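Kindly inspect the following:
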Amino acid sequence: MHDRPVPGRLGRTLTDVSEHAQLVVVAACGRQGMPRLLWDGASRSLLRSAGCPVAVIPANGR
């Protein structure tokens, strides 16, 4: 696991990093049904273009 700041536009940076990863894990900050993550442009870009599986985890741990 790597936890480091990476400069650049969030969606493009996450997609680029996913090309060298086995899994990308992101937190969803939604409430009542659809996570807010799915409405964010960077998140949509990642989910559409990721080079590996993407796990969306509720931010509150549930």
The beta strands are 24-28, 54-58. Helices lie at 10-18, 41-49.
